[in-house]
Q: What sequence folds into this?
């Protein structure tokens, strides 16, 4: 009997079909090449030694571990990465990049994936964090500098945030903390505006693709 | 000696006491700090999370102002320092089209690293009138000041020494420990209190195990995070100081009770116990 090449799909027993099996390299190198081109990181140099995952302080909270992120990129599994909590949980503390023996910029790559997720239409797994970053940028573009009190107020006024906080019961604690901070003189009531705000706004509009 | 000074947003708000102590310390050392005119926010975590281009363009504007002045920048905030250095590297690479007139030739100093140069250490030693010899401290550097080594330019990224040197210069007993540059998770506290709590709790636990009386930091976010979270943690709370607050305390004989009123964990009982405050 000759050993013919058996296609992978045919070799699977039927009861494993519950979850669609992913094939390796079925999409070619498109995603890998794109990431390498955009970040200039040598993703292909990763040999899965897991040093990044061992260095990561928040890896228990991630669904895809840092070394797996690199592997997923090699496989071209974009959707999984975009839907993961990893890209939002990452603190950008750069432990992984510092200790990588092959100098793969793991933190930079995760940050780039976060950028991609923001511009995709996929709902971020850690919605609060994504909304907070967005609010921060909006405050920055309004005044040029960020005032903590105004930032938190703007954040709470974003859709669903206040409701979530009430449901989780953290709102009362937060208000009390805010009052204590005010009493101790650690918050400014009014934001300080930088005079260069027009320049900043113009640059931001250009980057966003506005014509004016 | 003259330097341009980029305080950053935190020093106008949450870390007002840091800003005040910096002014006092630099006055004692005879170094002029010239605040950058109309500086803007460096973008912090939000800018690089949402758009890599903005994280280069925003700090580049501050670099451009400093280049016009022709003075090296000094940054007290670890995050600002990291973002400015990153932006400078990217400006030098000339990948992005930057709308400001900037070349990236100017030096960006981290405040602790600048002050711990041998020449300035001797100046600091001369200024000390109240040695903090009874105080046992651990120095906590955080992540943004030392990493990435390529960006932050620190050789001792695993065991940073800058603040240790400074505190030794004013006579404090500095204890070595292994959590100097572990991330405290402050940036995620807004959405995931559980992660923040576990990371900060571990740092506080280890700091207490070393037998230190206080934690010394240089990052505004680390200070507020380590300080505020202690109101929910049982056991004796440890005061969290900015390193300049202790330098200021060592430089002046005046009573300084009021300086520490912004702290959540009041350091006044500790300092009285050690005979540093009347």
A:
């Amino acid at each position: 009997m000759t050993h013919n090449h058996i296609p992978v799909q045919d070799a699977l027993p039927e009861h494993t079909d519950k979850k669609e099996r992913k094939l390796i390299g079925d999409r070619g190198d498109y995603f890998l090449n794109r990431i390498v081109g955009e970040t200039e990181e040598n993703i292909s140099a990763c040999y899965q030694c897991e040093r990044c995952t061992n260095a990561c302080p928040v890896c228990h909270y991630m669904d895809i571990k840092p070394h797996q992120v690199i592997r997923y990129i090699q496989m071209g599994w974009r959707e999984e990465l975009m839907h993961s909590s990893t890209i939002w949980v990452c603190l950008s503390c750069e432990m992984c990049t510092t200790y990588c023996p092959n100098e793969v910029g793991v933190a930079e790559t995760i940050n780039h994936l976060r950028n991609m997720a923001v511009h995709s239409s996929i709902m971020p797994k850690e919605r609060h964090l994504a909304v907070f970053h967005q609010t921060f940028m909006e405050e920055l573009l309004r005044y040029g500098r960020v005032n903590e009190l105004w930032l938190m107020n703007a954040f709470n006024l974003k859709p669903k945030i206040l409701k979530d906080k009430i449901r989780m019961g953290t709102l009362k604690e937060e208000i009390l903390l805010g009052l204590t901070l005010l009493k101790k003189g650690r918050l400014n009531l009014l934001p300080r505006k930088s005079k260069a705000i027009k320049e900043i706004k113009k640059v931001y509009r250009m980057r966003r693709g506005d014509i004016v | 000696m003259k330097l341009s000074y980029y305080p950053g947003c935190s020093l106008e708000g949450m870390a007002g006491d840091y800003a005040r102590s910096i002014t006092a310390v630099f006055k004692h050392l005879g170094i002029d700090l010239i605040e950058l005119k109309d500086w803007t926010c460096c973008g912090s975590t939000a800018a690089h999370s949402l758009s890599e281009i903005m994280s280069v363009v925003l700090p580049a504007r501050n670099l451009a102002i400093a280049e016009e002045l022709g003075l090296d920048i000094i940054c007290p905030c670890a995050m600002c320092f990291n973002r400015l250095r990153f932006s400078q590297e990217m400006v030098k690479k000339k990948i992005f089209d930057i709308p400001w007139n900037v070349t990236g030739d100017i030096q960006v100093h981290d405040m602790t690293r600048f002050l711990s140069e041998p020449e300035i250490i001797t100046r600091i030693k001369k200024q000390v009138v109240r040695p903090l010899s009874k105080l046992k401290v651990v120095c906590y550097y955080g992540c943004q000041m030392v990493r990435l080594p390529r960006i932050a330019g620190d050789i001792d990224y695993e065991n940073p020494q800058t603040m240790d040197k400074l505190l030794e210069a004013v006579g404090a007993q500095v204890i070595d420990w292994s959590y100097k540059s572990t991330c405290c998770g402050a940036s995620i506290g807004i959405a995931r209190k559980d992660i923040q709590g576990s990371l900060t709790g571990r740092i506080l636990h280890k700091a207490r195990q070393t037998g230190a009386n206080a934690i010394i930091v240089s990052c505004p976010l680390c200070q507020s995070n380590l300080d505020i979270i202690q109101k929910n943690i049982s056991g004796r709370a440890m005061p969290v100081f900015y390193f300049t607050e202790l330098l200021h305390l060592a430089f002046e004989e005046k009573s300084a009770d009021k300086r520490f009123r912004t702290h959540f964990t009041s350091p006044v009982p500790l300092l009285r116990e050690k005979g540093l405050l009347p």
